[in-house]
What we know:
By secondary structure, the protein is α/β, with parallel strands linked by helices. The chain has helices spanning 89-96, 134-147, 168-177, 204-213, 229-241, 261-269, 296-303, 338-342, and strands at 15-27, 30-36, 52-56, 65-68, 78-83, 103-107, 124-130, 152-159, 182-188, 222-227, 249-253, 274-280, 283-289, 320-325, 328-330, 345-347, 351-353, 357-361. A six-stranded antiparallel β-sheet has the order 4-3-6-1-2-5. Strands 9-8-7-10-11 form a five-stranded parallel β-sheet, sandwiched between helices. Strands 13-12-18-14-16 form a five-stranded mixed β-sheet.
Amino acid sequence: MTVTQSQPTRRHSVTHRLRVAAVEALTPDAVAVTFAVPAELAEDYDFAAGQHVNVTLPGGDGVRRSYSICSPAGSGVLRIAVKRIPSGVFSSHALTTLAAGDELDVMTPAGRFTPSFHPEQARHYAMVAAGSGITPVLSIVATALDTEPDSRVTLLYGNRTSSSVMFLDELADLKDRHPGRLQLVHVLSREPGTTELLSGRLDGDRLGRLLDTLLPPDTVDDWYLCGPYELITTARHVLAGRGVDRAHVHAELYHVGDPPPAVRKEAREQAVTCAVTAVLDGRRTAVTVDDPDETVLEAVLRVRNDAPFACKGGVCGTCRAKVLDGAVTMERRYALEDDEVEAGYVLTCQSHPTTPTLEVDYDA
């Protein structure tokens, strides 16, 4: 398979009901779910490696969950991985009840955790993942190896035990198919590895020693990090300490908790009563925000129930919009790269107006 990856052209995510084609066990606590995408929707569900979809149970509580696509770009296969989360409504359903033939409401792919691939490129991609953070990384690794014959990949993958490693066999198959181009390093925190270096948490000390021993940063063109907040912040710190340019470090987080009270308080203290105009699907809709606790997204949803959103935690980026006029303060912006913020993009689920008028464009 050869595919030149670029971001699929679409304005914002929309939802369609899709049939589940297969549910496969990955570990005792995780399954892969493959969707049957009808021919007339194939273009809508075309995706770039590293993107995600948002899934809702029809007739459920209306809460959306975001899951990364684990299949290679260009494969025509829409497949996600779901890992059990304590008290997780959708993950519990997926692991105990979901079966082939069921239907789910699935948003079209979104996200910018996406390398730009081209067959003539020769690059070294380094991946640092933990747990279910492997899901988008697997798609990126497979697509890179298939698309760029002169590129290579190094993957540092942290888990508790070998039995908890998602996609263990698929990663081994990739290694077998590309033995000289894929370096696969498993780090297990609760199971002895082949050396002390590979036995323990993937913390700052161990990551630093792995870089010094196996992965010199000056040999890497781009870094892709996916996992919990602590791993991402630690890896960024370690890489910065070794002179890696932040522009070459790309990250995607798991769900994170509420922002610190001080951050939330500061953002909301700056909020003002605002006349908001939202552009969505070419239509302009007006709404007033006069409650400092209300975000721009919450206000827009009062008048446009088709406004795109998923996690409402600043992680998935589904609610991304461009500020055309006015200004906001954001509680957090994990799903945005620095260049996106500089270009005027915001996460409306985290945004509070700081000017009397505001115009945001979801179509930009």
